[in-house]
Specification:
By secondary structure, this protein is α/β, with parallel strands linked by helices. The protein has 12 helices and 8 strands. The strands form 2 sheets. Strands 4-3-8-7-5-6 form a 6-stranded parallel beta sheet, sandwiched between helices. It has a two-stranded antiparallel ribbon with strand order 1-2. The longest helix is centred in the C-terminal third of the chain and has 26 residues.
Length: 249
């Protein structure tokens, strides 16, 4: 698996099929592995947050989640496969886990939302082993966090989804990865909300045209205006500057 750097952030040259194979391999390996996703927001955060950048760069897998990252890679002389967005990919992934007899655990969102997400998946994939779930509104350190880790370990899932939002989810995973009995750990952002129907997926024509950011901005302008209206242009300016200065990544 080849990897490259977009503004010093690692992005692996791996497609959805490769990710699925790597997850199955990671589960069989028996050691907790982090599969991180990289989009424009992640690269912008990594620019000023060395800890976050280090977590992404030493993850077992760092896959492309954003069309902007693919555009930047092309500008800097490399080609990435189509992005893999967990909120869409989760359905295929759960189908594979059902087929392989693997168990999953969901950590994040509000209690009614994560419970609804688990129910939706149970109805859609009756053979999927849902080892458990827990809401994301707990202290990410101290006794509360340790209790959550112990609860997950009692369930011992093959795949653990953690959705607190970036970078909090990556921080928590990094601090607890060595303690968790889970084969593969996937930061999942708002995935649980999408499964539960609390958030609507981007229409396919917008997602396929690289306009998912616009749809999300229109849906949540107060929360996302800074990320997209300031973050996206800043990202592209940095890519252009890197191209002019070095002609490479």
């Amino acid at each position: 698996m080849d990897d490259l750097r977009v503004l010093d952030v690692r992005v692996d040259d791996i497609d959805k099929t490769g990710l699925e194979r790597s997850i199955l391999s990671g589960v069989r390996n028996g050691q907790s592995r982090l599969f991180a996703y990289v989009n424009v927001h992640a690269v912008n955060l990594a620019r000023t947050d060395a800890r976050f950048r280090e977590i992404i760069n030493r993850a077992s897998v760092a896959y492309c989640d954003g069309e902007g990252v693919r555009v930047a890679a092309r500008m800097l002389g490399r080609q990435l496969p189509p992005r893999t967005v967990l909120s869409y990919w989760v359905w295929d992934l759960c189908r594979i886990m059902e087929r392989e007899g693997l168990s999953v655990y969901f950590l994040g969102a509000r209690e009614p939302v994560v419970a609804k997400a688990a129910a939706v998946l149970r109805d859609r994939y009756p053979g999927l082993k849902i080892a458990g779930w827990h809401h994301g509104y707990f202290r990410k350190e101290g006794d509360e966090s340790r209790n959550v880790v112990e609860e997950i370990n009692r369930a011992s899932p093959d795949v653990l989804f953690v959705g607190f939002g970036m970078p909090l989810q990556e921080y928590w995973i990094d601090e607890n990865l060595g303690l968790l009995r889970a084969g593969v750990v996937l930061p999942s952002g708002s995935m649980i909300d999408y499964i539960a129907g609390e958030k609507r997926a981007t229409p396919s024509w917008m997602a396929n045209s690289g306009l998912e950011w616009l749809y999300r901005l229109l849906r949540e302008p107060r929360r996302l205006w800074r990320r997209y209206l300031l973050g996206n242009p800043l990202f592209m300016l940095r890519v252009i500057a890197r191209r002019i200065r070095f002609g490479r990544m």
